[in-house]
């Protein structure tokens, strides 16, 4: 029934209702309605993902409500929550390519337990990064604890073969000079430079030209300052806990190549699909919640407006 490539699998299983967003002759994004584990089981064995992004309920103990849709994030216990994640991730890990990545989005509620669980599944040595997504928002003076303004994205690789794409952010001369806190020199042609060093005691080892540093940009590190979607953001579609497309675009640009297959089995409003389409990646999306599926299909329908402008 499956050829592992272009034709789309059709499941008769009542647990998984299937909807296809794009015409079968040009498949780029597939949307499933159903439990993540059931969808993973139903996919053709030959389908292998370069990246699986997982943005589950965070173990907040609350129902999450938006203008369009709601989902439950209440559990009997932490043990139950972790058991569900383990079941899904064991099935998911089998589906990653040897050069694939698993990116788990979570926050302080359970990130410490989920990191241990991920290590148990992928191996401690396959852990690559804890990306801190730091966002803006209203802040209030606090006595009990500080305002929580970051999520984390924990990244594991399937094997040592998985390589990221170095990404660079623009920065200017003033930012660089402020960071280095060093004297700026000028050469005979008027070009500005500072000393570079190769370790302790070798602080005057070579020249770093400021124009070259600015031209190259700053290599992305593991703290990402990206705005959260505020209530009036044009990108907002009304589904609770919708993530910004810019965040997924950056993650997919870092971890995948054009044409790669990306998976998101708790896809909510389908942000991963939007980012994948913008970057020319193929995506399999799933959600157990019919409201989420309705929102993502609307968002992804050909001709629907692209949520946010592409970076230059
Ligand atoms: C945090 S939201 C995802 C938000 C999404 N990244 C976005 O940008 O809109 C988590 C989603 O997981 C879904 N979910 C919860 N349990 C699930 C399960 N067992 N299988 C599939 N989806 C599930 C919920 O319905 C919810 O839409």
Describe this structure in words.
There is one protein chain. The chain has 312 residues and is an alpha/beta fold. The protein has two domains: 16-167 and 221-300, 3-Layer(aba) Sandwich (Rossmann fold); 168-219, no CATH class. It is 26% helix and 26% strand. The chain has helices spanning 36-42, 78-93, 111-122, 173-180, 210-216, 245-255, 271-279, 290-300, and strands spanning 16-20, 29-34, 49-54, 62-65, 70-73, 96-106, 127-134, 150-157, 168-169, 185-186, 192-196, 206-209, 218-219, 223-225, 261-264, 282-287. β1 and β2 (29-34) form a beta hairpin. The radius of gyration is 22 Å and the shape is globular. The two termini are 42 Å apart. The structure holds S-adenosylmethionine. S-adenosylmethionine binds at residues 35-36, 55-57, 71, 239, 241-243, 265-269, 271, 286-289, 292.
Structure summarized in a few sentences:
This protein has 312 residues and is an alpha/beta fold. Helix content is 26%, strand content 26%.
Average predicted local confidence, pLDDT: 86
Question: What is the CATH fold-level name of the largest domain?
Answer: Rossmann fold
Radius of gyration: 22 Å
Strand order of the largest sheet: 1-2-16-15-3-6-8-7-14
Strands, total number = 16
Count of helical regions: 8
Question: What ions, cofactors and ligands are bound?
Answer: S-adenosylmethionine
> Strand-and-helix sequence, N→C?
EEHEEEHEHEEEHEEEHEEHEHEH
CATH class of the largest domain: Alpha Beta
Total domains, how many? 2
The CATH architecture of the largest domain:
3-Layer(aba) Sandwich
User: What do we call the CATH homologous superfamily of the largest domain?
Assistant: Vaccinia Virus protein VP39
Which geometry do the CA atoms define?
globular
Structural class: alpha/beta
Q: How is the biggest beta sheet arranged?
A: 9 strands, mixed
Low-confidence stretches: 1-16, 20-25, 304-312
Q: End-to-end span in angstroms?
A: 42 Å
Q: How helix-rich are the residues, as a percent range? A: 25-40%
Strand content of the residues, in percent?
A: 25-35%
